[in-house]
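Tutorial, part two.
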Amino acid sequence: MAPDPSNSSSSSFTLVGVPLLEAFSSGLGTLFCSAYTIALLGNGAVLLVIGLDKSLREPVHCFLAMLAVVDVVMVTSVVPKMLSVLWLNSTEIGGTACFVQMFLVHSTTSEESGVLLAMAVDRYVAICHPLRYRAILSHQTIARIGLAIVLRSQLFMLPLTWMVTNLPYCHSHVIPHSYCEHMAVAKLACADPRPCELYSVVGSSLIVGMDVAFIAASYGMVLNTVLEKRSCWKALSTCGCHICVLLLYYIPGITSIYVQHFGSTMSVPAQVLLGDLYLTLPTMLNPIIYSMRTKQIRGALLKMLFSRKVRA
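Running the prediction step on this input gives:
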């Protein structure tokens, strides 16, 4: 029995890569492969150090480990297939694989936002209420926060995934993107994709808006406390680095969503590259900015490397 062409799960899609930039596929692949390698090494080092060093069990270390796990899943769900498209011209992706990739990409972006919010709250408690730090952020509280972050992403993505997978794809299956971005996929349907797009824009705006508002409030109270003490310039420097990473994560992400939904004069290659950078650049920078600037993690990593070198 021949598969039904309108059934998305029984058919495959074709990923274009970066439209109109096919001549630069090798160079783009090299850039994304380098970013992927740095992201894996950086986040892997963070997880290894936190896992092996028993002194790294503070709430901040738990949140850094969560961020590293989310980053690895996020970048791995996209870059390997992207490299096969750019380097090997292996553009076909099965329907099920496409929707699994879509689910992983967009659920991890929601989880990343949630972890960044949790880390901002952690800094607020550590600086503004240092004597109650461990009492407020107990292991049970951290576990509940982690569970809430995962549940929120699943509750957001499950309806969206169901809506996109149940659209009839009876025309073109060519996705003008380097991965299965849900709006790019929904626009291929021969039915009205606007309910999916509206749900995505409203849901993403609520999640990002809520998280950014709480992050801004947390860092605002941190800065107020630091300025009152007039002695914690290191905390000011750390907050500044964190804010830069937050801007690199949220601005490209929300811009990509709004550009695809409302239309823009931005060219298609620029839109695709913006989406790609949104998923790869923060995962590469997060372990450097958040973890390697943390004295305990940096010291534990150097100790581990030095001790191994001496033994060798």
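Residues 14-311 form a domain with the Rhopdopsin 7-helix transmembrane proteins fold (CATH 1.20.1070.10). In part three we will examine how such features are distributed along the chain.
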